[in-house]
Amino acid sequence: MRPIAPHHPRIRWRTVAIVLIGVLGTMASFRLFLGVWKAEQRQAEVEFRQRATAGATALQRSVQEHLGVLYGLGALYAAASRPVTRETFREFTKGPLQRYPGVQALAWVPRVSAAEQEAYLAAARQDGLVDFQLTERTPRRQVVQAARRDVYYPIFYLEPLAGHTATLGFNLGWDPVYMDAMQKALSTEEAVASAWLSLAQDTTEQFGVLLFLPIYQSGVSHRTLEERRAHLQGFVMALFRLGPLVEKSLYGTALGTIGLQLSDVTDAVSSYCLALQLRASHISSWTFLPRQRTAAEAMRAGLHWERAFNVAGRTWSVLFHPTPEARRTHTWLSWSILVGGILFTLLCGGFIGGRGVS
Length: 358
Known about the structure:
Beta-Lactamase, 2 domains
């Protein structure tokens, strides 16, 4: 019968030591990994919110600067001692239209009573617009001569005129959306924006917004609503094109890789939102999408940053969110610590085991 080899206690304790080193080393590596990973996530969230805040601030500031163009045009009319001519209007608007690409057009929209209609038609033709007439659209969006009305609000001056001649003479008072914005401007004596509207003359998908600022007869009181209605001359109008406006706003802002959604949340009239993707602080894509509550709620369920701000009486909302590309971008410190800790644990265990063999 073969004798049983005695179990050496040193071998047993060496095995226990290797197991303990493996367990404790792995646990320490995972705890350190989780601590660093959470710190990285917190730092990424802080940086995301800082970039989103900078983007929203730049957008809000740029919108206010564009609004300043409309108020500047209103100041021209308020300071004029005689009627502003078409040539004066053209020269005054030339500079702002070049400096602010988000401003697609500037216009003068007078209040024209039925008795004044022929005088305005004659004045336009005297300025060389021989085909000028007051127009409206049918329910099928066909342009026709304006129906007989007590008051018209036609686009009388328009810059730039190239490419927009068909818009001259269009009676904005025909459209309830435009008329509502003009009435609000009349009531508040402030610039008022319309809901977002489709720019049908574009070949590409694009939306814009009309803004109205009331102009009153000089030298008369317009403190009450009745006085403002009685002494209203008309409105200066600006058309903001949303795509170039946002692109101009974010240019030069260090936003990194991020997504944003801009929308008019005042009511259900503005049914589209502008969705943009930025890569390395440059706009890589943008499109207009139907405004869906479920899509916005899905973004709000994760990391996001949102701000609502006033734009001439309407409420716009900008929602920033990480893009899929940004979510795949990691700092590798936490993973390096995990892998390094496990490798170090294996080396320690192997070293002790190797000494036992030798």
